[in-house]
Structure formats: structure tokens, C-alpha cells
């Protein structure tokens, strides 16, 4: 398989390399096994020191890492820089809490002779996407490393330079050779790697189809996994919402990373009594975002990462319009070089249209009108996805009543959804299972062992 990077703003090829052959995979697995055997014996304080060094290295290399992400997948440079800095914050977070997260515990009510310890599993395979080529890798790797594991990460084919650069940063921070490695293998090889007895768990961020395939391989090998998959997040705008806030927050969420984020709002479910006013304000905010050269710090929306992604998005929009959706803004690819698609707002969207039923991975917002909050909850839950949701209302009491009714992994009220180091992150239904981040992200890849000392 060819791992090839193309500049999404121009379509020009930047780099290419072949995937690993069987001998290279074997060397990588052997090195990880050797490194993990020593790493598992290190104290939490020693692991924390390397995490702090990693945070410093990420900050030092932030300009280069951000420029590479922008070149390979088109992320606006200001957002790429923020991604690297957020990754450094995550490292500091876990370094500060290493001892507490790995300390033995006595569960409430447990006998005095018993306690629970958290030991490493071994080597974790991380199958990573292209849309956050630094954050996703760090988010997956750091908790697993803190737990005492080795990490092998398979990057997406279109961001090989970012993968190599992140690996160099880990090495510069002082992580032992073999403990954190890139594994350039094609998707078809993942099941074979996962079946190897030297690999003990898997984490995957990507499409639902990819997640199902890797989860099946993990189940066949009886290995645990964490899967953060697709999403078609609902943003529910109720009759008492602050419409300016809902419109501004919604536009920011929908256009973050040029709309290429699993966790950001895609379906805007709006009560009819405020529909027209929300549409007016929302379209104005979406239209005001600056589209252009992703290397320009003023750019807010860049190109899509690949030509096939733009073609798929255009087909989804066109099909939705044929089925009755109305275009309020955009609705087509932008002319000229690169893989740009115009910020788009569709309204009158309903079940049976791709804009309602599928994940729109690009700068397209779908507005679904509803009668009241009861119908809003039904429409929000009528999705095969269940990653997260946002809810706009001035009433905290109403929000608290509705939150338990939403079948998702997170609900943000009057704000946009994002992952943070302190809180668990993951979804339900076809958005995956398991949780990253917080204490949950560490213990997902720990052997939670009961010890009884009589």
C-alpha cells in the first residue's frame, strides 16, 4: 500500500512511501515487546517525567507540526497550532496525576484484606485517523503509555509525514526505543497484527465500518478495545434558546476543522416557533466564515482532506436536495484548485435524506424542523449514531430533564462539544464503545487486578 500525502489546497503530491513488509512488521513488534517489558517496571513518577518532557517537545515543535498537518490534510493553520498545544496540555494533565491514577484502591465496602491494582496489558495497537493527526495520536497513546503499555500506531494513508513527525517528537522527549512506534501497514493487515500474541489490545478512531471490522478481529482474538467511531451529532434549539448564541456556537461547531470532525454538530434540530429566526442568524454566521488558503492564519475554513471526500459530500447534498431539502447557503464544491466545498446550510431536512441519516463529513449543516421538545428528542435519537449532542435552552431545569433522554455519550448545554483531558470521551450505538481520556482512558488499557492479602 502506498502512504501518499497530497496538498488538499492544490491537489499536488507532497510525499509517498510504501507500507511495511512482513519483516518490518516483525521488527516493530519485537522492538515493542522488548521495550514494554522494561517500561512496565518503571514507577509512575518516571513515566510522568517523560510526559512532561513530551509536553515541552510538542510546544517546541508546534510550528513545524502544525504546518505539516496543514500541508497534508488542509487544516487551517491557526486550528492546527491549537491542536498541537492542546496535545501538550493533555501530557501535562496526565503527568500531574500519574501517581493518583495508578494508585491501588480499596473499593467502598471491600474487605480490609482486599485492594485493586492497575497493571499494564502489554502492547496496544492504535488505528488512527487523519483529521486530527497530532491530537488523536497523543490522546490515544499517552494514557496507554502511562498505564505501562507500549503503543504501535497505524496512521491514515494520507498523513504519513505527520505520523513520522509525531514519532520523532516522542523520541526527542526521551521515550525508550520501541515503546512508541509508527506501523505503516494497510487496513487489511490490521487483523493479522491484532491476532499476534504480542499485541494485547486495540484502540481505533475512524469510521463505523472500520470500527466494526477491527472490533470483530479483536473479538476473535479475545482482546479488549476502545472504539470512537462516526457521529451525526444533534444540536437541539428549543423555543427558549438564546438564538444568537445557538447560531454562533453552531456555526463554529459545524465548521471546525472544515466540518471534518466526528463530534461536532451536524443535525440542527430546531423547534418551528423559532425556525425562521434561527435560520436567518445561522446562515449569516456560516456565510461570514472566511474560506481560503489554509496556511493563512486568518482562514477559518479550508479544503476537505481528499478529492473523494468532497465527491461523497457533494453526492449526499445533491441527493438530499432531490428528496426535498432546501439550500439556504452554498450547496456545491467551490471552483478552482484543491478540494474546497462551500459552507452549506440545508433546511427542511427529514428522515430518508442522506443529510439526516448519514454522517456529513464536511462544512454542511442540516436543519430539521420539529414541533416541540418531545419531537426534538425523538428526532435526535432516531440515528444509528450516538456520539454526543448539544442542547440550547435558557432553562437549566429543562436541560436537566432532557439530558437523560438523549442516547449519546456526552451532552453539552449552550456550548459546542469537544474532548478534554479530564473527562471521558466516547459514544453509544454505532458511534462505538469504551471511553478515552480521564481516568477511564488509562484504565481502559489496564489489567484491573483484585488482590487479597489474608
What does this structure look like?
The N and C termini lie far apart (56 Å). β4, α6 and β5 form a beta-alpha-beta unit. The model has no long low-confidence stretch (mean pLDDT 97). This protein folds into 2 domains: 250 residues, Aldehyde Dehydrogenase, Chain A, domain 1 (3-Layer(aba) Sandwich); 180 residues, Aldehyde Dehydrogenase, Chain A, domain 2 (3-Layer(aba) Sandwich), CATH 3.40.309. Helices cover 41% and strands 19% of the residues. The strands form 5 sheets. The protein has a 7-stranded mixed sheet with strand order 11-12-13-10-9-15-16, with helices on both faces. Strands 6-5-4-7-8-18 form a 6-stranded mixed sheet, sandwiched between helices. α2 runs antiparallel to α4 and α10 crosses α11. It is built from 16 helices and 19 strands. With 454 residues, it is α/β, with parallel strands linked by helices.
Topology summary:
Blueprint: E1 2-6, E2 13-18, H1 22-39, H2 44-60, H3 62-73, H4 77-96, H5 98-102, E3 114-120, E4 123-127, H6 135-146, E5 150-154, H7 160-172, E6 180-182, H8 190-195, E7 201-205, H9 208-220, E8 225-228, E9 234-237, H10 243-255, E10 267-271, H11 275-288, H12 307-322, E11 326-329, E12 344-347, H13 354-357, E13 364-370, H14 373-381, E14 385-386, E15 389-392, H15 396-402, E16 411-413, E17 428-429, E18 432-433, H16 438-443, E19 446-452
Parallel strand pairs: 4-5, 4-7, 5-6, 7-8, 9-10, 9-15, 10-13, 12-13, 15-16
Antiparallel strand pairs: 1-2, 3-19, 8-18, 11-12, 14-17
